[in-house]
Structures are given as structure tokens and as C-alpha cells.
Specification:
The structure is a single chain. The protein is of the alpha+beta class. Helices cover about 25% and strands about 25% of the residues. The protein is built from four helices and 15 strands. A five-stranded antiparallel beta sheet has the order 8-7-9-14-15. Strands 1, 2, 4 and 5 form a four-stranded antiparallel beta sheet that branches. Strand 7 and strand 8 form a beta hairpin. It is globular and about 45 Å long. The model has no long low-confidence stretch (mean pLDDT about 100). It binds 2-amino-4-trifluoromethylsulfanyl-butyric acid (MF3) and cobalt (II) ion (CO).
């Protein structure tokens, strides 16, 4: 069942989303060669709490940290640890913010120092794919219109489009219905209504789409060891389009 959100609930998610956007801005200055992913987690947790909010991933299905830090071939759900970032790495940071009973979900992949040109393109195209999907959001649109827009934009590049993990409804919980894949699917004809809040999150691999989960039970990595990028926004469906909730409106 898709649980629609009221204006008041949407405004609360927007408040969470604003904190997430400010958090990414804050973290950016620390994402340099030499820092560990655990240090980034600590900085994030302190920042979130200083905004009277709670990291919604912590404790979710036993997840042990405040953010997910996925480095290089790690696609999603990397656990912060003593790994030291090096020049040329990329790091996907995924964060859920809980405040006033509502949750936002967003992610962004950052370059550590200077990265190679093909990886830079992977990041740019994955973020662009996210916006291609968002652009289709509108009352009455089908999930396949969103999923298909992401798929069609990425297809010509011959990247691996992750299939086992998808976008999803969000707001009252970290994961709600409906599922938003990054490719067309059988039940994708379902139409979305005003007040539906979804997280759209393309996960795109430089190589093939196949993946596996590490021994830690969380970290999802590419099977061929090639790099992977991930960008995510929480978006609400409106009568005439959409509103992105995980931005900082104070920013120009
Ligand atoms: N945003 C993540 C997702 O949609 C949620 C991660 S939950 C965690 O998959 F517990 F893994 F952090
Ligand atoms: Co998500």
C-alpha cells in the first residue's frame, strides 16, 4: 500500500532533506585523501544531532552506523570503518534523516582529489540520470515513465545498471512502497498520485551490473571490481510535477 503524505508531513520531510543537503555541503570539505570513512561517519552523526535530528539508518535492520560510505567498487551500504581514502577514489555517501517522525533519504558520490576522466563521466551521467527520472514525476505518471527515463538515458553508455536494488517510497519509514527500479518492469504501469513521496536512486556501474554482498552482510560490491556511482533524491509527486525535498532552499 502506498501511504500518501499530507502537506504538513511533506514539510517535515523537507526539513529533513534540508539537513541532508547541508550535511553533504559540510562533509565535502572533509572528503580528502587521508580521512577514514569512520571519521566521516562521526562528523555526519555530530552534524545531524546538532540539527536536532536522528540518523535514520542507524539500527535499521541492525545497520551499525549513521551513514553508508561506499568506496570505489562498493555500490551501496558500505559500512564506515578504518579505511583511509586515497587520491583517485570515489565515495558514495547515503544518509537518512529522521526528524519530527518523518524521514528523508538522499545520496551523492564524491571524488577524492583528482579522479580519472572516465570515472568523472560515470559520476556526471549517474547524477544526470537521476534528474532524467525526476523530470518525469507528475500526478498520474507511471513508475515505468520514471524508471524508463533513467534506463534510456544510461543505456547508450553501456554501463551496468544495477537491478537488485531500487528506489522506493519513503517518509514514515526508510523503505515503503512503491519500488522504483532503474529499468522498466512488469508492474511499472502503476500510476503515482499527488502526495506520493519517493526516493529515486540510480546505481550505475562502470562495468557489468552483477554484484555480490561482502561477508559483513551489508556492503554491496560490483562483481568485476569496477567502480560504481550512486545519486539519490527524495521527491514528492505534485499536481503539476514534483518537488525535490532533499535540497537546501537557502542555497541559490
Ligand atoms: N538509502 C538506503 C537504501 O535505500 C537505505 C540504507 S539503510 C541502511 O537502500 F541500513 F543500510 F543504512
Ligand atoms: Co534509498
Amino acid at each position: 500500500m502506498i501511504r500518501l503524505k499530507t502537506r504538513d508531513e511533506i514539510n517535515k520531510i523537507k526539513e529533513c532533506g534540508k539537513i541532508s543537503a547541508k550535511l553533504f555541503k559540510h562533509l565535502e570539505q572533509y572528503i580528502r585523501p587521508g580521512i577514514t570513512t569512520r571519521e566521516l561517519d562521526t562528523i555526519a552523526e555530530t552534524f545531524i544531532k546538532s540539527n536536532q535530528a536522528i540518523p535514520s539508518f542507524k539500527g535499521y535492520n541492525g545497520y551499525p552506523a549513521s551513514i553508508c560510505t561506499s568506496v570505489n567498487e562498493e555500490i551501496i551500504h558500505g559500512i564506515p570503518c578504518n579505511r583511509v581514502l586515497a587520491e583517485g577514489d570515489i565515495i558514495g555517501i547515503d544518509v537518512g534523516i529522521l526528524k519530527d517522525g518523518m524521514i528523508s533519504d538522499s545520496a551523492k558520490t564524491f571524488a577524492v582529489g583528482k579522479i580519472s576522466e572516465n570515472i568523472q563521466l560515470l559520476l556526471e551521467r549517474t547524477e544526470k540520470a537521476l534528474y532524467k527520472g525526476i523530470a518525469r514525476v507528475k500526478d498520474g505518471c507511471s513508475i515505468n515513465e520514471i524508471s524508463g527515463a533513467i534506463y534510456d538515458y544510461i543505456s547508450p553508455f553501456q554501463y551496468g545498471i544495477v537491478r537488485e536494488y531500487c528506489g522506493h517510497g519513503v517518509g514514515f519509514a526508510n523503505h515503503e512502497e512503491p519500488e522504483i527500479p532503474n529499468y522498466r518492469f512488469k508492474n511499472g504501469k502503476r500510476k503515482l498520485k499527488t502526495g506520493t513521496v519517493i526516493a529515486i536512486e540510480p546505481m550505475i556501474n562502470l562495468g557489468e551490473d552483477s554484484l555480490f554482498i561482502l561477508e559483513d552482510g551489508w556492503t554491496v560490491v560490483t562483481i568485476d571490481g569496477q567502480f560504481s556511482a550512486h545519486f539519490e533524491h527524495t521527491v514528492v509527486v505534485t499536481d503539476d510535477g514534483y518537488e525535490i525535498l532533499t535540497i537546501d532552499p537557502d542555497e541559490a
